[in-house]
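Bumping with the actual sequence this time:
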Amino acid sequence: MISLTRLERAGLWLLNSGIQEPNGGVARYFKSEEKVNAPLSTEITGYAVSAFLELYARTGNVAFLEAAERAGSYLTSVAWRGELNLFPYETDSHGSDLVYFFDTGIIIRGLLRLWRVTGRAGREMAKLFLAPRGYHCIVRLPSQKALPDEPWWSRTPGCFHLKAALAWKELAELTGDSGFEKHYERQLAFSLEVWRELLEVETVPERLMDRLHPLCYFLEGLLPVVDREPVRAAMREAIEWGGRLLREIAPRFVRSDVYAQLLRARLFAEAAGVMPLDVAAAREEFERLEEFQDETDTLRHAGGYWFGRKAGQMMPFSNPVSTAFGLQAMSYWHERKAGVFRADWRELI
């Protein structure tokens, strides 16, 4: 198993650094040069719920459970727009009138892991974001009108939405409502059709590195149905393509979350018999990932994971999602070596 010292360092950063504010909300990242948090984010708070529960399951430290409950309370009491059955992008004036498809799915998954089933939000998510192909990315409140697509990957419907659609898969299991399953299957079909476009339309290396992040979201969204041959074929191709691009671009710019996500995808693919593990590649990704965990004793940084490295220099952003993905990927790697990796997609942060 992973050293508790390293695991707990990541967890204690999430717990004590101030990235989670007193009301339970979690900031998008900490700006180390300005020494202030970015605005609170409902999506990041949803991820934090899952991360805190992962840490509680692995360490038994009740403080992590309490932090998850505070984050869940923020989402359900502060962020939740009950009159619309929706979670806004942010709760301040800047983002309070926007709702993202992807963020909604991540929030629902976090709350489901906290045993707070949010079936109303799941149904509204399907109805509100439905597009001719796939699902719209962003809706403005209170009109509930979809914003026009934009060239940036996170603002146009794409394969990465399949990660958020896992919320429907989990809701289908928990409620027995087959309608949720149909929504997941609709996004699955769309994702399998368009996923290559994510990489084919970009030629700038730094922007291509950014697109490896949503490529891994696509891989994660496939995990419940890896028994299907079209899914297995897509996983093999995407893992090999993503791994090659990661290594080509990394000397210029690399994101820590891509190392973590690709490593997790490799381990799940091996466990499902999709493809043999490229041990050398997986070990390299694990070792590179280790480099991003801060080893200082500074409260705002210690144990957290830096967002990325550009031209050999670490970028000044301590990132809660990178930290959550990193601690889980490293745990999975050690569990695989010990022969105890469970490969349960429902536990994937």
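The tokens above came from a reply further down the thread. The radius of gyration is 19 Å.
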